[in-house]
Amino acid sequence: MVVLRFKRFGRIHKPFYRLCATDKRAPRDGAVIEELGWYDPTGPEGKQVHFDMDRVQHWFAKGAQPSLTVANLVKNLGGAIPAASAKALAVRSKVSRHPKPAATEEKKEG
Predict the structure, then answer these.
(1) Which domain holds residue 29?
(2) What CA–CA distance (Å, rounded) separates 92 from 96?
């Protein structure tokens, strides 16, 4: 299965990522099929992300699945994501993995 995910570059405390189409079994920074863009979370405003949206949509049409972060960024850039990924994205954003317990106030007696 082909997935769209990031490869990490950069240095400590200054990450830089490349968006890649890769086999799901390959390691994160391993071999890729095609590089599709980049993401610089610490870059200046307006120059943080650049994706080749035509190629991203091409891989979606072939059945590639995006990682959660890639799906969020593609959605924010105005691209369409696969229906299965959209459903998973909606579920993950609404449900917290570690819900906080309800706040209870205890009265001190003294």
Answers:
(1) 2-94
(2) 7
